[in-house]
Design goal:
Elements lengths: L1 H7 L3 E6 L2 H13 L4 E5 L14 E5 L4 H12 L5
Antiparallel strand pairs: 1-3, 2-3
Amino acid sequence: MAGSETESRPTVRIFETWDRPSADIVAGLLEANGVTCLVRGTADATHFGIGPPGFWRVYVQASDEARAQEILDAEIGREEE
């Protein structure tokens, strides 16, 4: 059980924002397309002190990273780095 739990935990950051509703939209979009994700932020008690208040990150499983990026690119466009 512990091995499968570790494998299924989303650990790759795919999206970050200051805006919780935007993080929820991205998470909903990914979930609607079958990609399991996790939203974590500085307002989350387990992550208090990571950064400025209201900063949110969406994580996916490593095996879903390419698919998640394709979905986000198609729906909201690619960010320039």
